[in-house]
Amino acid sequence: MTLDRQELFDALTVRVADITERRAVLRTLGKLGLAMVVFGVHPWRVSAQELTPESQLVKGCKLPGQKCSGKNDCCARKCASDHRCGCVGKGKSPAVKTPLGPVPVKALCCTNKLNKLKETCK
Prior knowledge:
It contains two helices and four strands, in the order ααββββ. The protein has helices at 5-18, 22-39, and strands at residues 95-98, 101-104, 114-115, 120-121.
């Protein structure tokens, strides 16, 4: 019998709600802690997201349509008069600086299409 996390939480909630003595509560929490160690359940462990060109927008640059205060805020280096980031026109490179180097991101293109051979906006 396998329990998913929601069922485990529900079972624990019902069990703790039925307990009236402090000693019994501590015993149940101790068993829970031991079960987490034995079965390898670590609620603080997170898994890293897979890196794709679209997910590499790090270091604080903003996509077209997001609010900006100047051209340096935007990945496309265009901040319009309505304080929104603009997009990259046809034939220009939509490269974003990332820790892995410049990465072309199609979301920056006005057409949302990328010429993969030339790495420019269509």
